[in-house]
From TrEMBL:
This is ATP-dependent DNA helicase RecG. Residues 12-119 form the Schlafen AlbA-2 domain. It comes from [Clostridium] aminophilum. Signal peptide: none annotated. SUPFAM superfamilies: Winged helix' DNA-binding domain. GO terms for molecular function: helicase activity. The lineage of its organism: Bacteria, Bacillati, Bacillota, Clostridia, Lachnospirales.
Length: 456
């Protein structure tokens, strides 16, 4: 049994709900709990978690009525208990997760985050599929094997696992095809032919910081179709074509300065392909690249209904909407077969020289779509450089003023970068910086590698 004192400390959440009195509409909450991960409903507790108590006659009636109403509505039983705190009585209704989908008068409810929602359309289809212990990608397709080819898949697979192969046996082993020759949906998605129309990706490079920021809204766009391998390869090509990968020389090594860490983009695209919902007819994934960020949008929220923005991103358990797709991507070494993609994206960013906490990737779901925002690591630097160069070229700035402007616009800029931007020798920059530091005009905070400049 759950302890009310502990519940008060935790506040209302995905598995807890407080109600001052009973109403029959709360059967919807019970349905939602049973269809999710279970939960507890408290009757006689206010919105702040304070036990306000129930009248003795109400207690007796509810202890009889609630179990009967639950059984009549769903054919299940729940623990309904009378509890006490500070001599005040309240009722605790403990709901266990149901093995089969439950409905209330033909309507299905689900508890996600701290709210109850009715599930309909593709979400209901996906929910029923999940409740049977299978997944969309494991379902049998009506497209026969002889209508499909797998040349792209073969090429990548043989590159990873060279040797002689009975390819159809491999398709069976990977669960892309059944022994009787019937293809699964996963098999169709890996085929060279584009048979699942809404699996496509729309890619756009926008001009500015939003979708309508100028007369020429889009600088580049592409609709990508084909197998999931083609989607991945062509989407990566689009991102590479529409982003920069600069570098600088530091002593005897070359320091890469990409707009976006390639590992983070790869992981974001793989996650988009293996975790998206393919049940939404007419839906598609999107890659929108703006001046300062890239947003990868994916049909389908978190598979367990949770809100990713509320989770500890480094400790999110892997729950796969399409386990066969994930397994095959792992076999093809396009992703690790264990571990969180979220963590890899964060690690890829944090390893970059120009990373700051303000550029931390953002993960968000509205329940219907998943959004990954990757920030352009060079945007602030390029903006500062362009602004300062315009002023310097107009003769309005001295070298000292030029450096101060660059430091204000981009506090993480290095002396090597200042040298490159201004076309001055490293020695000249060092001398000016020493003067600024000695005079107290500029202060360095943090280490040489990840520190920042403060202009006073």
């Amino acid at each position: 049994m759950r302890d009310i004192d502990k519940i008060v400390e935790d506040d209302e959440n995905q598995v807890v709900e407080w109600k001052e009195s009973w109403q029959d509409k709360y059967l919807e909450w019970i349905c939602g709990y049973a269809n999710a991960q279970g939960g507890t409903l408290y009757i006689g507790v206010d919105d702040n978690g304070n036990v306000i108590g129930l009248d003795s006659k109400v207690q007796k009636k509810l202890l009889e009525d609630i179990p009967n109403k639950i059984t009549a509505a769903f054919g299940i039983t729940c623990d309904v208990n009378l509890k006490s705190k500070d001599k005040k009585k309240y009722i605790q209704v403990e709901v266990k997760k149901s093995r089969l989908p439950l409905n209330l008068h033909g309507r299905y409810y689900y508890r996600t985050g701290s709210v109850k929602k009715e599930i309909t359309g593709f979400e209901l289809t996906e929910f029923i599929i999940k409740s049977t212990g299978t997944s969309y990608d494991a379902m049998i397709s009506d497209i026969p094997r002889d209508k499909l080819t797998f040349e792209a898949f073969k090429k990548r697979y043989l590159n990873v696992m060279p040797g002689n192969h009975d390819f159809d046996e491999d398709l069976i082993s990977f669960r892309l095809m059944q022994e009787d020759g019937q293809m699964t949906n996963a098999g169709v998605l890996f085929a060279d032919q584009w048979n699942i129309q809404h699996s496509r990706i729309f890619c756009t490079r926008w001009n500015g910081l939003d979708k309508a920021g100028s007369v020429q809204d889009a600088l580049d766009d592409q609709e990508i179709t084909g197998s999931v391998l083609s989607l991945f390869d062509n989407a990566m090509d689009f991102v590479r074509k529409n982003s920069k990968k600069g570098w600088r020389k530091d002593k005897d090594q070359r320091i890469e300065l990409p707009d976006y860490p390639e590992r983070a983009v790869e992981e974001g695209l793989v996650n988009a392909l293996i975790h998206r919902s393919y049940l939404q007819t007419g839906a598609h994934s999107q890659i929108d690249i703006y001046d300062d960020r890239m947003v990868i949008t994916n049909p389908g929220g978190m598979y367990d209904g949770s809100e990713v923005q509320l989770l500890d991103l480094r400790h999110v358990p892997s729950k796969l909407r399409n386990p066969i797709l994930a397994d095959v991507f792992g076999r093809l070494r396009l992703m690790e077969r264990r571990g969180s993609g979220f963590k890899k994206i964060l690690d890829a960013y944090e390893s970059e020289e120009r990373y700051t906490d303000s550029l931390k990737p953002e993960f968000y779901t509205d329940g219907y779509n998943f959004f990954l925002t990757l920030w352009n690591l060079n945007y602030a630097y390029d903006k500062a450089q362009n602004k300062a160069q315009v002023k310097a070229q107009s003769g309005a700035l001295s070298d000292r003023e030029y450096i101060l402007l660059l430091l204000r616009e981009n506090p993480s800029v290095t002396q090597n970068e200042l040298s490159e931007i201004m076309g001055k020798s490293r020695r000249s920059i060092q001398m000016i910086m020493k003067e600024l530091i000695d005079s107290g005009t500029v202060e360095r905070v943090g280490s040489k590698k990840v520190g920042t400049w403060i202009v006073k």
